[in-house]
Amino acid sequence: MKAFGKFDPHARLPLRKFEIYFGIKARDGSEGWKSSYNSVQKLLNHLARYTRSEGSREKYLDLLRRFCEWSGYNPEELVHLPKEMVEDLIQNFADELAAMDRSKAYVNSVIKKLKTFFRSNGYKDLEVATHFVPTIYRKRPEYIPTKEEVYMMADSAGSLRNRAVILSLWSSGLRVSTLCALNYGDVADEVEKGESHILVPVYPEMKQRVPDACKGNIPYYTFICMEAGEALRSYLREREEKYGISREEPLFHSDWTLWKRDERASKRLGRRGVGLIVKRSAKLAGIEKWRHVTPHSLRKAFESVLVSPTIDGGRLDKATQEFFMGHILPGMQDVYYDKTRIDFHRKEYAKLDFSRSKTERTTDKLIDIDELEAHFSEGWTFVAKISDSKVVVRRKFT
After folding, report:
1. Alpha carbons 97 and 172: distance in angstroms, whole number
2. 288: how many CB neighbours lie within 10 A of its CB?
3. How many helices (H) and strands (E) does the chain have?
4. Cβ pair 207, 219 in contact under 8 A
5. In the chain, what are the helix, strand and coil shares in percent, each to the nearest 5?
6. From 73, 141, 170, 307, which residue has the greatest number of CB atoms within 10 Å?
7. pLDDT tens, residue by residue, 64-86
């Protein structure tokens, strides 16, 4: 029976508008991403030479579909138009988007994508005017929470999983798609060894799980702080008791109630789910600008920690900062920077100041409810009740 009479979560997802429009009948296998339009297939072949991102293909094709519908030409007709007419069509389409108050950066990206389609079909040096974008430009408001506000968000997250998501996202600087692509096996050894700063690897093969993971196919690794590590272990202990856990399963699983209980651990938490966790936690934490807090805000909050004084009063080397952000170093620096020194990077990361204040830190622990009294006598405080038999407690330490 379909939940609420609407849909079956196990059913194969129907083809999207752009797939139907361009005669694409499958997303995988030998017929995957094959268009009945030769001009569209040339675009897909062009993209395949530069990126394996399924997300990129979706964005290009959905934009091209809208452009075709707006212009009244199908793809094959478009690529037989005179160059001047193509330039006018792109310019007028972009100008109409700008008049709709779309951001300058977005309008420029539309022009770039459409020029890529025509360039892959033989058009050279199309002249289309773009919009000036200042070096520092963002149309959509964004609020970057302070360290104390991030901890307030974690405290308000509502579950052990959500708390671990927020602290891991913040203290690693991971992009949201990469966080979603992590499997338990990626961190299992570090978790089980009891590492205080857990190493989190990022590698191109993650794209097979989430298309936008590992941006630019740049392999690197980062870490999560001690507080995030404790939150992650608490979440994993709870999950082990509820569902069990294998190395092949997602590190952060979906708790969507339409999935059967025994299915949830194998269903991956998605970008939208993470976004909802972050925004809801910011709201419950009492952050005034909670609507403008996003997963990317936490990546920027991590960058703020990277450039701030370390706990020993120094600062991380600029190249090390860039490495932890997953950036390619400028010029020949990237060639000569030794990315294999895990112990060095772990020690450098340990210098970062993720504490709530200069003197106070906290740790959380999942315990049996009958152990609560003994923990109170040791200075622990109650945080949340997880089940009839389990609770989370917290203790401050300096």
Report:
1. 36
2. 9
3. 17, 5
4. no
5. 50, 10, 40
6. 170
7. 999 999 999 999 999 999 999 99
Of 180, 217, 186, which Cα lies nearest the Cα of 201? 186
- The whole-number pLDDT of residue 30 equals 76
193 and 187 in contact (C-beta within 8 Å)?
Answer: no
Contact 89, 83 (CB under 8 A): no
DSSP state letters, 9-32: TTSPPPPPHHHHHTT--BSSSTTB
If you average pLDDT over residues 286-291, what whole number do you get? 93
Residue 362 to residue 382: CA distance in whole angstroms: 13
The whole model's pTM is what?
0.67
- DSSP E strands, the chain: 198-202, 220-224, 361-368, 381-385, 390-397
User: What is the predicted pLDDT for the residue at 380?
Assistant: 80
One-letter amino acid at 53 equals: S
The DSSP 8-state label assigned to residue 1 in this structure reads: -
- Separation between Cα atoms, residue 319 and residue 328, nearest integer Å: 9
User: Where does the pLDDT of residue 138 fall: very low under 50, low under 70, confident under 90, or very high at 90 and above?
Assistant: low
CB atoms near residue 199 (< 10 Å): 18
- Grade residue 294 by pLDDT with cuts at 50, 70 and 90: very high
Length, in residues, of the chain: 398
CA 116 to chain centre: 26
Q: Give CA–CA dist 348/247, Å, rounded.
A: 28
Rounded Cα gap, residues 280 and 122, in angstroms = 48
Written as one letter, the residue type at 31 is E
Partners of 268 in the β-ladder: 253
Find residue 198's DSSP bridge partners.
224
Q: Is 394 exposed, middle or buried (0-12, 13-18, 19+ CB in 10 A)?
A: middle
DSSP string, 192-227: HHT-SSEEEEE-GGGGGTSTT-SGGG--EEEEE-HH
Question: What are 225-268's pLDDT values in tens digits?
Answer: 999 999 999 999 998 988 889 999 999 988 766 666 666 667 88
